[in-house]
Amino acid sequence: MNTIESRYYDGTYLAENPDWDRKDSTWKADLVRAILSDFKILPSTVCEVGCGAGDILIHLRRYYPNAKFYGYDISPSVVLFWEQHNEEGGGVEFQLGNFHEINVVKYDVLLMLDVFEHVRDPFSFLENSKRHATYFVFHIPLDLSVSTILRGYPLINVRKKVGHLHYYTKDLALTMLFETGYEVLAWRYTNASLNSPHRSLKTRLAALPRRLVYAVNKDFGVRLLGGETLLVLAKPLS
Length: 238
Known about the structure:
By secondary structure, this protein is an alpha/beta fold.
């Protein structure tokens, strides 16, 4: 298989990312819980598309012990992580395959955390997802900034290492969701460059100047320096 998706099937992605970003799982689960709590959403069913190792669902299950959890991914490499969770009594139903082809259920909340920037056709992917849930939580890397464009290599690096095919600013990401039929209920920066466990040493060293720029104007600072991600709560447009 020689396609842009082959990295997820042939072990290339796992070789480049052996921990499958598991270090950020608790942090992301806390972000999801916070935005759902702000809108008093107490889900009884939660599904994550592109769940990877499944750790985010495992962490969320501790917050919602009465809910049922489901995870989908296309990569056979993650099955080993799922088996480990199952041995530990994880309580999540994992499925290997194309979510849109397999799923027949409508969930209370559907998670897409660092997902549609990897997809060949994000427009169709997002449009086809709307019927599968009442609420959606998106976590979107904001790869486009003055810094990344001027330096060039950061964009190529995330393309080669983690498979980002599409790059976003906050405004582009929110526009994409609107254009594919979603109503944005809330959005927030996650302060990933300051708080995420998985940030690089270079990002950690740049924390002080970043804080100073953010204190003047957060939007300007994100567009200038990058390193941010966006958390969005949305529902299908009625």
